[in-house]
Design goal:
The strands form 3 sheets. Strands 5-4-1-6-11-8-12-10-9 form a 9-stranded mixed β-sheet. A two-stranded antiparallel sheet has the order 2-3. The protein has a two-stranded antiparallel ribbon with strand order 7-13. The chain has one domain: Spore Coat Polysaccharide Biosynthesis Protein SpsA, Chain A (Alpha-Beta Complex). Helix 3 packs antiparallel against helix 4 and helix 10 crosses helix 11. It contains 11 helices and 13 strands. Strand 2 and strand 3 form a beta hairpin. By secondary structure, it is of the alpha/beta class. The chain starts with 7 loop residues before the first strand and ends in a 12-residue tail after the last helix. The chain binds uridine 5'-triphosphate (UTP). Uridine 5'-triphosphate (UTP) binds next to helix 5.
Length: 303
């Protein structure tokens, strides 16, 4: 195996999901469904389609449903078998075979950087991917696969980025870029949730990373930063000082499904694309717009 092979992915899912309260008081945000699949399954499927074999999910209190989702459900399988629902049965069985799943508990939500650090023992000394499940990317080539492809050529940490509207930079980690080639930049600096006036660009880190194992020793020394959390961005800034780091503009439509409006937009778009639901749903939406006499408009939000 080449030492630049990326076989493992970390999916941090131990956050409190405060933007979705009260829905997330006792249920994981990661289990909110886009049409009929929980958010975290989209992340797992993207990882698997990008060549990942081992998936390490960082969980916390109240997140049991995630483990149950990726396990077999023998009672359900018996029921589906008994009622002759063969297709649904094979779909349910398939979920538990998607990858090798491991779970690590983050006993306190101390921040994304701390969540990633929790995976150190399972990652060991090899490069790995990080996927944030509340950023859903709809693309012909999976978002993570685009990063892994770039990593194999560049051998430095790669952050997935996209341009965001200037007034929204305060919701993201923002990079200071130096252009290398079309869509690829050397990262010269990084800042977490800057105000528009202090932002070095509008290239935002969008929840996809390929990182070398050296990030762990940096994370161990990283002090709590913005919001009192151990920020992955702060550790990445240190890493960028020591070794080359790149930002790749990911091609595809991104939805911020960790935010209520973004989640609703993603739901509508995935429902419209769904072969069995799309035509009826579109008809409903058109009637709905007509009946409101054109007073409502659907605003399209460029991600
Ligand atoms: P967010 O910043 O979106 O936080 O975390 P959150 O808790 O999920 O949601 P809000 O902002 O309170 O509504 C980004 C990712 O990092 C994970 C989250 O689960 C999410 O996937 N995370 C965050 C952890 O795993 N542990 C933490 O301590 C913090």
């Amino acid at each position: 195996m080449s030492r630049f092979e990326v076989r493992k992915a970390v999916i941090p899912a131990a956050g409190l999901g405060t933007r979705f309260l009260p829905a997330t008081k006792a249920s994981p945000k990661e289990m909110l469904p886009l049409v009929d699949k929980p958010l975290i399954q989209y992340a797992v499927e993207e990882a698997v389609a990008s060549g990942i074999e081992d998936i390490i999910i960082i969980t916390g209190r109240g997140k049991r449903a995630i483990e149950d989702h990726f396990d077999r459900s023998l009672e359900l399988e018996e029921n589906l078998k008994g009622s002759g629902k063969a297709q649904l049965l094979s779909q349910m069985r398939h979920i538990s075979t998607l990858a090798n799943f491991c779970y690590v508990r983050q006993s306190e939500a101390l921040g994304l950087g701390h969540a990633v650090l929790c995976a150190q023992r399972l990652i060991g000394d090899e490069p790995f991917a990080v996927i944030l499940g509340d950023e859903v990317i709809d693309a012909p080539m999976p978002g993570l696969a685009q990063l892994i492809h770039a990593y194999k050529k560049r051998h430095g940490a790669i952050l997935g980025v996209q341009e965001v509207p200037h007034q929204e930079v305060n919701r993201y980690g923002i990079v200071t870029p130096r252009r290398v080639s079309a869509g690829l930049h050397r990262v010269e600096g990084l800042i977490e949730k800057p105000s528009p006036s202090e932002a070095p660009s509008n290239l935002a880190v969008i929840g996809r990373y390929v990182l070398p194992p050296e990030i762990f020793s940096i994370l161990r020394k990283t002090q709590p930063g913005k919001n009192g959390e151990i920020q992955l961005t702060d550790a990445l800034r240190e890493l960028a000082k020591k070794s080359p780091m790149f930002a790749l503009e990911i091609q595809g439509q991104r939805y911020d499904a960790g935010d209520k409006l973004g989640f609703l937009i993603a739901t509508v778009e995935f429902a419209l694309k769904n072969p069995s639901l799309g035509p009826d749903f579109e008809e409903y939406l058109q009637n709905r717009m007509r009946s409101s006499g054109g007073r409502s408009t659907i605003r399209s939000r460029k991600a």
